Amino acid sequence: MFSDANLAAILLTAKLASIVTVLLLLISTPIAWWLARTRCRAKVAIEALVAMPIVLPPSVIGFYLLVAMGPEGPVGQLTQALGLGTLPFTFSGLVIASIFYSLPFVVQPIQLAFENINEHYLEAAATLGASPLDRFLTIALPLAMPGFLTGGILGFAHTVGEFGVVLMIGGNIPDVTRVVSVQIYDYVEALEYDQAWELSAIMIAFSFVTLLLLYLFNPNKRKLA
Amino acid sequence: MTTLQKLFTALFCLFAISSVQAQTVMVAVAANFTEPMQEIAAAFDKETGNNTVLSFASSGKFFAQIKNGAPFDVFLSADTAKPLALEQDGLSIKDNRFTYAQGALILWSPKADFVDSQSPDVLKTGQFKHLSLANPKLAPYGLAAVETLNNLGVYDDVANKIVMGENIAQAYQFVATHNAQVGFVALSQVMKQGKLSSGSGWIVPKDLYSPIRQDAVLLKKAEHNDAAKALLDYLKSDKALAIIESYGYSH
After folding, report:
1. Which of A61, A130, A174, B112 is packed most tightly, with the most Cβ within 10 A?
2. Cα–chain-centroid distance for residue B90?
3. Which residues are the signal sequence here (chain B) (predicted)?
């Protein structure tokens, strides 16, 4: 049905988005839990930091990452010292960049879900002798499940839709960094509109299905997306 | 006439006079020609009193925009194919297409003494991790780079080290940030006032790649825009040619 190049780009994009989503759910949970419960004054600043990718142009994030992860940049110096080489033009580089880029879209729904948990449930469990970890795993996590679903879907979708960041640090290498959005851009620039049309249609169908899933799982939080 | 009417009449006259004297020219400029065109447009506006408005993007993007009705008067493409296609589609005025500049390619590194100015030996020694070039499918400079590698007989040796920018600006960005140690970029990007502004490089001999001719066209919308025609003439003037050459383009 698809050309080999299109299929390779779709598979690479799916792989990238899946890995990023799993890592983001792991990273976002403690951040969201802390943000939802802390009374620390630094909370607002941390919230602002986490939300920054929403307002920053992807080209800005991509440009800073390219410089920071380059051989002269601080991240690049560190990765080289660890024997990992530098991250631009690698799949790992895309994963790390995407985590930055999609972080707020996962943290925010989970944080909201944690904030909406009735404090009395946790207090009641505590009086019955449940440990903090026990309370978190058996009460907070299940109650916040819709937030995790929303966060997971949004994180996945945003990573699939990412373009500016990949363009800046990717290097357009087949099977390594050439994702769907870059592939579509190539077709349009090369005036290969038929191919661009095909791949774009898939993206439109994907976006619709994603949002449909989001609203099915989370009928009360439509405004989030 | 009431005061208000007088005011409007005066304003109208002012507007009418200014629009007769100074015409606006909307120009779509291929990104690689940004700096010389800014200089040329400033000189042109100063001499003629016209108002030249410049937009910069890749030629492919401009082509798509023009086909879909973008309001440009003049298109300075980075290649010859797109202006030709526009003419064949009836979107530009016939007999106004010409080559305004010819690009040159350089194998460049931001590090001093990394590339020998006399030979491409660095490509054979393989003392680098990434070689940056523009996507040959999209950018004439990328195509010229691949032709050069093939003609030097080293393409297969370096193929797995190639990283591609979507255009020559991005290919430059990859090298300039040291993420690629060496890359094929446009001479105009690293040359200011006739000499290399930084790093080291080997200017690729012209016989190793097909000419990178950049063509200009007058678009349909500018059929009656004298300023647009004057700008195209100005691009051929000695003054403009001197500016073009100072950025490493030939003619």
Report:
1. A61
2. 23
3. 1-22
